[in-house]
From TrEMBL:
The lineage of its organism: Bacteria, Bacillati, Actinomycetota, Actinomycetes, Mycobacteriales. SUPFAM superfamilies: Winged helix' DNA-binding domain. Keywords: DNA-binding. It comes from the Bacteria. It comes from Williamsia maris. This is DNA-binding transcriptional regulator, ArsR family. SMART domains: HTH_ARSR. GO terms for molecular function: DNA binding.
Amino acid sequence: MDVLANVSVLARFGHALSDETRARILLALADGSRYPADLADDLGVSRQKLSNHLACLRGCGLVVAAPEGRRTRYELADPTIGQAIADLVTVVLAVDPACCADSASGCC
């Protein structure tokens, strides 16, 4: 894979993680496939909001929809995504608290 392709992949992953709800969805799906209604209830978001975020995550190539009769189950597009998420949450970063205190600083 060339550098530009790698940048594109990381940008899509970063976009997905830039929203708290999408990050929570990915964490939930890292534990296994789920139905949208159950995810919405567990995450405390409306089904419409969840649907919009799932569409974004599908567009980023991180989740896939698996039809099951009249229902649709969502899962990570690849098991390595779950491992990558697990690896990311175990990383300890030394962050200057003043850096990300507001979005005007431009660092986060």
